[in-house]
TrEMBL record:
<dbReference type="Pfam" id="PF13911">
    <property type="entry name" value="AhpC-TSA_2"/>
</dbReference>
<protein>
    <recommendedName>
        <fullName>AhpC/TSA antioxidant enzyme</fullName>
    </recommendedName>
</protein>
<dbReference type="InterPro" id="IPR032801">
    <property type="entry name" value="PXL2A/B/C"/>
</dbReference>
Length: 256
């Protein structure tokens, strides 16, 4: 069964109203359909992906792209996620277990079994190993890119924008000019956004991650045309690998 057929047969709880409905409902008239299968709602990748979608929301709308996202969690975690990221609740669906992920054969992440540890504890240990790059290719390089900057990526924080990470003093976007200039991703700029996300999730952990058994599960991106033909897909291989082009995660939309 191809991925579109799997999505077409899948029902999940919609965050906006709590109803269990087909995830593709209301998308039939879309010029393009972008289906995002996300890990936990408190995952680095999920939060960062939503940030990029909000940043490019006008272009996405102009291209006639309808978005549907499915993530591991419950309605409460979905509502918290939408409040924080601005992602539309009517486009977000939640599932308590990664059954859809498994049907699509997405990467489960590192799944080593450690004696005497519970399922949740095993997931935590495997997650920490993946954060160290084990079973998660490219993760460490992407972490370092957040600190050293990237001249191929756009400037992420506007000069007048104030970022409050909850750990550091509030930082104005213009502060990052001292780290190298403007008009591109400056050193520490992406790392600061990631720190803000981490503080948000850890401060509301039980809400974002109601079941920590699936911490290592990865996601995928699927883009379809009006007839349901697959135009583009990306399957995450590890943590912070939600896009093929790390500098511009939504660059695959530019060819539409």
């Amino acid at each position: 069964m191809n991925s579109y057929a799997i999505f077409n047969q899948t029902q999940c709880q919609r965050v906006s109203d709590g109803k269990s409905v087909p995830i593709l409902s209301g998308s039939q008239s879309a010029t393009y359909l972008l289906v995002l299968v996300w890990p936990q709602l408190g995952d680095f990748d999920t939060l960062e992906y939503a940030w990029w979608l909000k940043r490019e929301s006008i272009e996405i709308q102009n291209r006639g792209i309808v978005i549907r996202a499915v993530a591991i969690g419950n309605r409460a975690s979905g509502q918290k996620f939408c409040d924080y990221t601005g992602f539309p609740a009517e486009s977000l669906f939640v599932t308590p277990k990664p059954e859809l992920h498994q049907k699509l054969e997405l990467y489960q992440g590192l799944c080593r079994k450690f004696p005497l540890l519970s399922t949740s504890q095993n997931a935590w240990v495997n997650l920490m190993l993946m954060c160290a790059g084990i079973g998660s290719p490219g993760t460490l390089g992407e972490v370092f890119r957040g600190y050293r900057g990237d001249r191929q990526a756009p400037q992420l924080i506007d000069d007048e924008e104030v970022i409050d990470t909850g750990v550091l003093p509030p930082l104005k976007g213009s502060f990052f000019q001292f780290a190298g200039g403007k008009g591109f991703q400056r050193p520490f700029e992406l790392a600061t956004l990631r720190l803000r996300n981490m503080t948000e999730v850890l401060s509301n952990w039980k809400t974002y991650v109601p079941d920590s058994s699936y911490l290592t599960q990865r996601g995928g991106t699927f883009l379809f045309d009006q007839t349901g033909n697959l135009v583009y897909e990306h399957r995450d291989r590890g943590i912070l690998d939600f896009a093929a082009d790390k500098s511009r995660p939504l660059s695959f939309l530019s060819s539409l």
